[in-house]
Design goal:
Blueprint lengths: L1 H50 L14 H22 L4 E5 L5 E4 L1 H7 L14 H4 L1 E2 L2 H12 L4 E8 L5 E12 L5 E10 L1 H47 L4 H25 L14 H9 L3
Antiparallel strand pairs: 1-2, 1-6, 3-4, 4-5, 5-6
Helix pairs in contact: 1-2, 6-7
Length: 295
Amino acid sequence: PSIKSEVHELLRWIKLEILGFSFLGAVAGIGIVYAILNPLRKILTGARQIAQGDFSGRLDIKGLDELGILGKDFNRMVSSLNEYFIDSMAGGWILLDPHGKIVSVNRGALNIFQCESEDLVGKPHNSLLKVLSVNPLLESWVEESLQNQLERSLKELEAVNAEGRSLTLTFSTSRLKDKDDNFSGMAMTLKDLTRANEITEKMQRADKLAALGGMAAGLAHEIRNPLGSIKGFATYFGKRYEDKPSDREIAQIMVKEVERINRSVTQLLEFAKPMAVEKKQVDIKEMITHSLKPV
């Protein structure tokens, strides 16, 4: 009986140990699953924010394991994307504090000014006039926008950058506020319209050339009709008066002049097209004599 009771007691302890280890295993499993799924859920949420165009989110994943490294790489990727989309804008921006000091300038603005950030950051807003030759109206416009916290635009201001390139710029201001909704500065955005204006001028010039080409085609038709008749009569009289050298020569001159007018009409039609220059040797004495001959 003593042996049987000892066996029962041993079995009971074994069952308790199995239950204890099972419970600890279940707790450990839940902890492991949470440690894996929680960071993955944060990464998934951050990815959805990026897909919706929100680049402000950052992941708070601590640890030195693979998930922690993944979280840091994700934050680095979001920061790089944010900087890329901001810096790749067609224009640029300048951030000013409430006192008018320049606190940040993006690459787009620096490319327009053709200067470096050290030339502007930490300096008053009127430092813009040192890297950009522009109407002094800009300085008072920025100052008034800061003092009155105005959001407005200044359209098509002519300027010259540090490289001497003429520019057409537009400026606009937007208020900046902190988390407590207090005024914290001004964002000034600018766009370079120079290239757009150049393209517009080229399109307008192309339209004018097209209209001129249509008019030239009509004129060519009206001019060439009588030219054909004149050339025909000149050829006829040249053959009729072959025995009279002076008359025959005059008829031949008429034919050549008609052909010259015809070439001029052809050149008028090709005015809007690039023309190849044809070079050839001529007898200048013969050309002058020909030009001075009476018709």
